Amino acid sequence: MARETVATETAPEELTPGARKILDAASALFYERGITAVGVDLIAKEAGTTKKTLYDRFGGKDALITAYLRERDLRWRSWLTSWVDGHAADARPGEQLLATFDALAEWTRQHNPRGCGFVNAAAELPDPAHPGRRVIDGQKRWLRGYLFELSTAAGADDPGRLADELALLHEGAVVLRGLAVVADPVGSARALAEQAVERALSRPRAAGPPIADTRPDDR
Amino acid sequence: MARETVATETAPEELTPGARKILDAASALFYERGITAVGVDLIAKEAGTTKKTLYDRFGGKDALITAYLRERDLRWRSWLTSWVDGHAADARPGEQLLATFDALAEWTRQHNPRGCGFVNAAAELPDPAHPGRRVIDGQKRWLRGYLFELSTAAGADDPGRLADELALLHEGAVVLRGLAVVADPVGSARALAEQAVERALSRPRAAGPPIADTRPDDR
DNA sequence: GGCCGAGTAGACAGATCGGTCTACCTCGCC
DNA sequence: GGCGAGGTAGACCGATCTGTCTACTCGGCC
């Protein structure tokens, strides 16, 4: 029983060819049609494999859902960090914070026509005990933490507040991308972010003990 | 066939007692557990009625989903407008725009522990032809239009841009409410909104022809 | 009294759900 | 040559899905 769940524990590169095809098919179907609405039969058929392989490699649908979320999370993290590192490495303070919105713009263009995959998944996983929920929480916490780091490095007067605000703008932009009601949500978010960053940097943090982060609950 | 769909076309007050119980039960279950995951048998059982009544009154699950979204939409609209009218009727310009976030704060406290019901529903209704999608689009467009009206009344220099920004902040706040990663998302959104409103009102609109709205696609 | 809208009770249908199973094939490695 | 991991093919299970149906009850209205 412990061996079968190996696919959800190790790096995605170590997946068996069959498991790789299944995870690819499941990722596309889960995002495009919803998690509950997609059955394991369809996934196996779309992947060109059989349910046997699916259950041998992943153990069950819940584990497959979790693997889908985990891989999407990893992809987003490396996308964002490599973009920020590459496009604003030695720019003026605050530029890296705004670069996250440029990364988001390109990400949504390529991978997010239907809104945030994690928000959508959370809507379908109401049970807080579901393993996928931990991945979703981790993704949101990671982004907020990353923004907190960049805010601190930029010298924001209250990096915790700025991180909260920028995380909010990220979420709002991604969600509105999926609902065609605002012309350029990422652009609007970036404009608001510029204001927020400007304000946070206009009153530079006083020298002294570093300001503690004010995250809601770190358990 | 035309008669059966009466419940989805008329005001919710005109619902039959049985239909009322079914819609109430369905609304709670759809929001708390997700739309696809909830079956009609459970809805009928939870409502203390039978499937027969459900199909006689609503015609089918899709129509029931649409009725759920429609009623939730109406409730939110009247909640927001009455709050804004009551709490900031004769205040200084821009105050009404910020009052929408106070209304949102109380709304999420009472009705939105699991994020935006419309965003969650959109995640489960990928088919653009589903009648529920029109309700979701209508809700988002209405909010954006309402914010545009308030922005214009407040004398914003670019009410279209301000409406886009405030709509974005609303969405971000509601979504983040459902994911406990930011301490007070509505508060953060309100803080950002204050900045945006202040900026939009600091350069009052020049006299002359009214600025045309720049909505993405009004069909 | 007669009628009809509304509701209850519950069987029923066909499809699909997640999940298990047997049987067989193929490939690389010892 | 033998062995085991990975895969294919497909039957099978019980449960649940949406949706339909018959039969009966109740209450208000003409």
Task: Please summarize what this structure is.
The first copy, chain A, is an all-alpha fold and 219 residues long. Chain A has ten helices and no strands. Chain A has helices at residues 6-9, 17-33, 40-47, 51-58, 61-87, 95-111, 117-124, 131-154, 159-178, 185-202.
Write up what this structure looks like.
The structure is a homodimer of 219-residue chains. With 219 residues, chain A is mostly helical. Chain A has two domains: 1-59, Homeodomain-like (Arc Repressor Mutant, subunit A); 69-202, Orthogonal Bundle (Tetracycline Repressor, domain 2), CATH 1.10.357.10. Chain A is 69% helix and 0% strand. Chain A has ten helices and no strands. Chain A has helices at residues 6-9, 17-33, 40-47, 51-58, 61-87, 95-111, 117-124, 131-154, 159-178, 185-202. Chain A starts with 5 loop residues before the first helix and ends in a 17-residue tail after the last helix. Mean pLDDT of chain A is 88; it is low at 1-12. Chains A and B meet through helix 7, helix 8, helix 9 and helix 10 of A and helix 7, helix 8, helix 9 and helix 10 of B.
CATH topology of the largest domain in chain A: Tetracycline Repressor, domain 2
Question: Which H/E pattern describes the elements of chain A?
Answer: HHHHHHHHHH
Mean pLDDT of chain A: 88
Strand content of chain A: under 5%
Structural class of chain A: mainly alpha
The number of domains of chain A is: 2
- Distance from N terminus to C terminus of chain A (CA atoms, Å) equals 30 Å
Low-confidence stretches of chain A: 1-12
From the structure provided, what is the oligomeric state, counting identical versus distinct chains? homodimer
> How many H/I helical runs of chain A?
10
What integer value in Å does the Rg of chain A equal?
A: 19 Å
Q: Can you identify the CATH class of the largest domain in chain A?
A: Mainly Alpha
Largest sheet of chain A: none
Instruction: Tell me the number of strands of chain A.
Output: 0
Biggest interface reads: A-B, 51 and 51 residues
CATH architecture of the largest domain in chain A: Orthogonal Bundle
